[in-house]
Amino acid sequence: MRKITGQFKFRSLEKGDKMVPRNESVGLLFLRLAVLGILLCLCYLPFFLGTKTMWALGHEDGFYEYLTAFFLLGASILFFRAYLRSDARDGRTFMKMRKNVFPLLLSLLFFFGCGEELSWGQRVLKFSTPESVSDANRQEEFNIHNLKLMMGEEYADGTKKSRLAIALNPTRLFSVFWLVYCVLLPIVSLSIAPVGRMVNRIGIPIVPLWIGLFFPLNYVVFKCLESSEIAANKPDRIGLNMIAEFKECYHCFLFLVFALFNSIKASPPDVSASSTLSS
Asked: How far, in whole angstroms, is CA 224 from its chain's centroid?
């Protein structure tokens, strides 16, 4: 039911949500967009600080690589917390499990990404790569995403890969994940009511569009950078690998923002505030 008090219109929200004035909710949306926009602008700041500073921040084992790992670890912790706080009694669990498994899956995924980004602590702990892994790894590091099996156009024995195998490299798989989960799923859930109800019923965390739309925007911006002269192979120009490092960092920053939003949304409602508004 709708209740009108003065100039504010109140709307019925889902179970567990606060009753918030419509005008105020729109204001909060613009506030979120403004804050996120400012933070993303700060992320692009290195491109205006000169080539030397960019190399210092974005090189292998540099500041931005550790920042990417930090964002992924933060998202992993927040989603694991959401998993621990989930309860089958709220009716939003998959296959009637005792807890919602989807935040746990996201937590494990982001933890894996964090470990891969740091080669599972190899540079921090200073341990050497086992010979069997070193021979199979393009950068001779202790990780999976740089395995020769997943990179290049040929297998280790010189056999040509199929087009599908070439396409399914870690970079493209990462792009497919954010495109499907962070952009297409939210749009479909909002556009097709039965899909939205099913997703909500089984408890899949949905990326808000005000976050999800930054993924393709970020992708387009960096594609433009890659095709510009800034990516030319010259000593005084930043390379394609450097741009990829920055792009990856900003995507992971958005994952952390989503995890924070999901954590806040999943917090227990303020009963006193709700009753005050409805009285």
From this structure: 21
Rounded CA-CA distance 151/72 in Å is 23
240-265 and 170-177 are packed helices; what angle lies between their axes, rounded to 10 degrees?
A: 30
Please write the tens of the pLDDT for every residue from 52-63. 777 777 777 778
**Do residues 145 and 173 touch, judged by C-beta distance below 8 A?**
no
In angstroms, the Cα distances linking 107 to 70, 74, 150 are 13, 9, 24
- Parent domain of 209: 3-278
Confirm if 240 and 226 have CB atoms less than 8 A apart: yes
* Tens-place pLDDT, residues 213-240: 889 988 888 888 777 655 555 545 556 7
Between helix 214-227 and helix 240-265 the angle, nearest 10°, is: 170
Tokens in use for 256?
């952390």
**Furthest CA-CA distance within the chain:** 75
Contact between 117 and 65 (Cβ < 8 Å): yes
Taking each continuous run of H as one helix and of E as one strand, the counts in the chain are: 14, 2
Report the alpha-carbon distance of residue 159 to residue 178 in Å, rounded: 31
Contacts 24+ apart (CB under 8 A), 130-133: none
Dist. CA 203–CA 41, nearest whole Å: 33
| Locus of tokens 């949500």 | 17
* CB-count burial class (<10 Å; 0-12, 13-18, 19+) for 251: buried
What is the domain count for the chain? 1
Assigned token pair, 260: 């924070």
pTM of the model: 0.76
